[in-house]
Amino acid sequence: MLRLSKKADYALLAMRHLAAQPDRGAVSTRELAERYDIPAELLAKVLQRLVRAGLLESHQGIRGGYGLARTAGAISVADVIQAIDGPLTVTACSEDDHSCDQYAKCNIRDPLWHIKDRIVAALAATSVSDLAADLSTAAPGGAVPVPLMTARK
Amino acid sequence: MLRLSKKADYALLAMRHLAAQPDRGAVSTRELAERYDIPAELLAKVLQRLVRAGLLESHQGIRGGYGLARTAGAISVADVIQAIDGPLTVTACSEDDHSCDQYAKCNIRDPLWHIKDRIVAALAATSVSDLAADLSTAAPGGAVPVPLMTARK
DNA sequence: AGTAAAATGGACTAGTTCGGTCGGATATCC
DNA sequence: GGATATCCGACCGAACTAGTCCATTTTACT
Prior knowledge:
Two copies of one chain form a homodimer.
Chain A: H1 6-20, H2 29-36, H3 40-52, E1 56-59, E2 65-68, H4 77-85, H5 109-124, H6 128-133
Helix pairs in contact in A: 1-3, 1-4, 2-3
Chain A binds a DNA duplex through helix 3.
């Protein structure tokens, strides 16, 4: 599986929309919900979480709505997913959380964590502006080697 | 999240165990279950799926059990996960399955599929023998002798 | 031949998570 | 002050997951 949640899908959809419409002022939840056939209340929560994570800026009131908090190139897909679904972990346990019945006898932690790092790297290497560019074959960021960044909180 | 299921965890644990104990004949469900504190009936199902996927060979009867169907190096982590959790997809839709409310209006499919390919590549590049080698920094494919019980740092 | 140990397979249950909804509060502009 | 928007918590039903139970079949050993 490894499927990402629908909320994360909605978040990415919205982020891409905002990235593709720069200088358009605030876009409301309702507009986005209608545009993509997403239940408005649900999308609202998703957008709120993105605001709390610092990825979006909100503007209340009658002409309110949302806009990107940074440039689209400075927001990665990993940022968006983590804002919605929390820190992305492949295994039940992590460096700080050992809550797993098999922890003591587990022998596959390290290689699995290594795989996780590679997955995070793939998500971190793709920015929201890459989504907006919509070139399926495009290497994110051109010929930039993938930084093997270990996300630790 | 992107967390893999507990069944997949159990499967990888068992596969690694079998890879680290070559030429030991069949290993029974009960032995594996006790070794790793896994409910036996559940593990049994997991192992059965691995057999059906062609990753394990089973041997019924009083001295029966399971053994790798191929060499550990020829079985990837992706193989194991797919055998348990089905084809691994990041998005609800895929090339052949368009069942997703947003399909028509979706604009992030291609970049997301590209990310999926990279994730699959990361999983496919790590073999069960790499798990057994247990060197977190090891490049997949390295010729490393198999330690029986690796003391962890 | 009989029995014990093993895999096989289906049905079932409890718990959790996820997608979605509802209601109300607060801020802003006209 | 009213319309339009974000904000926030509580709630619900459906789906999925982990785990259980039980009955059958296969095999080895005595």
